[in-house]
Specification:
The protein is an alpha+beta fold and 232 residues long. Helix content is 17%, strand content 33%. A hairpin with a 5-residue loop joins β3 and β4.
Length: 232
């Protein structure tokens, strides 16, 4: 009789515990919400990625949400590496939990096929694409040849280097001593004359030029290869 009462007491204690377990949000459902957010975000950006399994604290006990879970990225999210993600329930028993997930995001970036020396002007033959994990990239990078071709490099670079804007010089449109066209214009007229550049010049930079006819030195803006614009 005593053994039977003991069994009934244990059963009575176990039933609420089992009932309570049924009313808890499972870690699997929270992890699924996180992975659904990551997959949707990266696929919308058409970016290749690889995410490690979501690891949640096994001691986590949250009330079962009676509404769909909402996953979101925290402000200041990174493109790759450890991403901070939140999951919230806005149901009867509201709660929010935060977790970090390690994600590798890959992108085709412009790299050097060949080693180049300082001052070399890059051509398409020097360039190629390679898939890299964004978490391993330092600083900016290029995803197209267009802004790289015909740019001189500031330093000697090894083959395989990921090109960064800080390693490239802005090409000079005009060189000191070069013959140029000086175009003086106002709202009513424009006149062109030949001259000589007294400084190197990049696009939009102001340089001094000497008028061939008058020998007068004036200052104008580099408007194109061999063209200096003076607004009156």
């Amino acid at each position: 009789m005593r053994a039977k009462l003991k069994f009934l007491l244990l059963l009575a204690l176990a039933i609420p515990a089992a009932f309570a377990a049924d009313r808890l949000q499972t870690n699997e459902s929270i992890a699924a919400a996180i992975m659904a957010l990551i997959e949707s975000d990266f696929r919308q950006r058409n970016q290749e990625f690889q995410a490690d399994p979501v690891r949640l604290d096994g001691r986590l006990q949250l009330p079962l949400c009676d509404r769909p879970l909402e996953a979101f990225f925290l402000p200041g999210r990174r493109e790759s590496g450890f991403l901070s993600v939140g999951v919230r329930c806005e149901g009867t028993h509201s709660w929010t939990v935060y977790n970090k997930v390690h994600v590798k995001a890959y992108r085709e970036v412009v790299v050097l096929k060949n080693a180049v020396r300082q001052g070399s002007v890059l051509t398409e033959a020097d360039l190629g694409f390679e898939k890299r994990d964004l978490a391993n990239l330092r600083g900016s990078y290029f995803t197209s040849f267009d802004p790289v071709v015909n740019r001189p490099v500031k330093r000697t670079l090894a083959a395989g280097a990921v090109l960064s804007p800080e390693w490239l010089s802005v090409p000079k449109m005009i060189r000191r001593g070069q013959k140029v066209i000086i175009q003086a214009e106002s709202s009513h007229f424009a006149v062109k004359m030949s001259g000589q550049a007294l400084n190197d010049g990049e696009a939009g930079q102001r340089i001094r030029v000497r008028n061939d006819q008058s020998a007068r030195i004036v200052e104008g803006t580099v408007a194109g290869p061999g063209l200096v614009l003076i607004r009156l």
